[in-house]
UniProtKB/TrEMBL annotation:
Residues 117-137, 416-433 have a biased composition (Polar residues). It is found in: Golgi apparatus, trans-Golgi network membrane; Late endosome membrane. Residues 4-101 form the PH domain. It comes from Prunella himalayana. Its main location: Golgi. Belongs to the OSBP family. GO terms for molecular function: sterol binding. GO terms for cellular component: cytosol; Golgi apparatus; late endosome membrane. The gene is Osbpl11. This is Oxysterol-binding protein. SUPFAM superfamilies: Oxysterol-binding protein-like (SSF144000), PH domain-like (SSF50729).
Amino acid sequence: SDHMENICGYLMKYTNLVTGWQYRYFVLNNDAGLLEYFVNEQSRHLKPRGTLQLAGAVISPSDEDSHTFTVNAASGEQYKLRATDAKERQHWVSRLQICTQHHTEAIGKNNPPLKSRSFSLASQGSANSPGVQRRPSQNAVSFFNVGHHRLPTGKRVPIMQPDHLVDVREMMSQAEGQQRDLIRSIECLPASGHLTSLDQDLLMLKATSMATMNCLNDCFHILQLQHASQQKGSLPAGTTISWLEPKISLANHFKNGAAQNFPAEINKPASVREEQSIAEPCQLTREPEEINPDEELEDICDDKEDDLGAVEEQRSVILHLLSQLKLGMDLTRVVLPTFILEKRSLLEMYADFMSHPDLFIAITSGSGPEERMIRFVEYYLTSFHEGRKGAIAKKPYNPIIGETFHCSWRMPKSSVATDAGTSSSAHSPSEQVTLPKDAEGQAEPDYYTVKFVAEQVSHHPPVSGFYAECVERNMCVNAHVWTKSKFLGMSIGVTMVGEGVLHLLEHGEEYTFSLPCAYARSILTVPWVELGGKVNINCAKTGYSASINFHTKPFYGGKLHRVTGEVKQNMTNTVVCRVQGEWNSVLEFTYSNGETKYVDLTKLSVTRKRVRPLEKQGPFESRRLWQHVTESLRDGDIDKATEHKRALEERQRNEERLRAETETPWCTKYFLKDGDGWVYHKPLWKTVSAAQTQQTDSN
């Protein structure tokens, strides 16, 4: 109470979807334990526009930014507020928490602990049931003492005693036992007949009871932590609090006669239980794993995405989702419906951008800096068509932190351009790019290998790192991408924040590049994909650069998927190549010598990637991690896919919560933080440099 003070000032308050954020004048009344707000400071003498009782409230800084926080009153009412900066937020949060604790402790003094009781399933509705035994004064209004009261000055309220939570824990243990009995009773019903174990109402009752117990246990855990923090410094050294224990596990915490061997999640498929029981990432090895390309087999998966006729059937789901969104809202934390998902992870989508490895390898064979820049632009523009799997606007799985994806490509050396005179062979639609059958058995392979690895290095914000290399051609590419999704009304925009660098070690050249934005248009009818924005490619050593514009379709007229660009020499400002066309159809390249070349992306050969079989993949590799979701989507079972997806996401949230509580930092496996970006732990440029140094020393 020594630190309690009345504070006031302007904060932004979120009102609703239509109105959004509004400035309001807030007043913290410590004596009354109230947070009040007015339209402005001048109207402070009038009746407040709103009032929250702080006794029993929870003050929570938001993790969406450093300015926002929420005040959750015991009545269920919530204020979502935003300060001008992080310092002001901290000031408000700390004062509100002090006031809240003061008045909550006062309530504990005025409401002595309840006596221990015993309940059983047979006593429902009797005088011994929790609902009947509640004291008349224990309703919400009287419990939080809504009548304004003033504490005697100079007196400090004693800290609440642990026996409050002893009673609560006993009641909750018995409630869990009753809930177990309920589930067993439902499970024992016959599979057919008038009332079965698959009755929709009974299934809903099972799910609701489980969710209720989970919620109550979360609340109980919060109370334990709060009381533990209150006890710090107030007990003699060495004193232990016997009632303070880890969060109750519904799977293992049985009381009230419930059988110890009763399965906690018997109603969940085995695959869901497997997804939830995978060891914590911190318990798995985080050491980088060397993937043997010989273990990888040519990918036989051909998950062509179905048309989205189902969207019409799911329109009510989409409308419900849209009703909760507002323009500009960050969709990173919004769970989207499962039926709009592609059958692959975002990490695998990045790998599919490499589906023309012949064009990638041919870059370093350019006869000069100008041709190498042009070849890189050609490869860059041809990568999006296959990477997007067509124009259907479905969304790849959001990778969970620690997820990885590995693959490789093998390209016959005869199909890769080696100099300017043979460059056309690399672009010929009729060129066969599949590996000859007899190539694998040769001691000296006549093919190039491009290896690829991607890892989800961060969850908030969602950042992916990916790396590809061709050792035989002394070239590699390293990139990191942060995907930021925003709601734009009838479309969704995804900004690809980050940077990639292509290293041509043979020439000592580095090409930096960025990625365009992506848009899902017409999300209420048949969604389609559009790319937009300006990207730049630069090579500081040679002075060549490229500027590429992905044009979004105007409201009236105009073409879809249009792209234009030019390559120029910065020193002389001379344009050496122009490009125009559609990024998913035909591209036209016009060179400074007057020559023109057309590339039909729909006929361009695609090299299948090589992936290890599922049984050889680690538990956090994309295809094994998402296999049950993918299988359910292939079978058209959206509900089952949603269940598997939810299990993975829930496991990720639990792991993140555990790391936060134990203050354990996340350790990446393949990528290392480098300034604002992420770099592969063993890039080719370091390997080559080390080999050259060793050779020099030996000479």
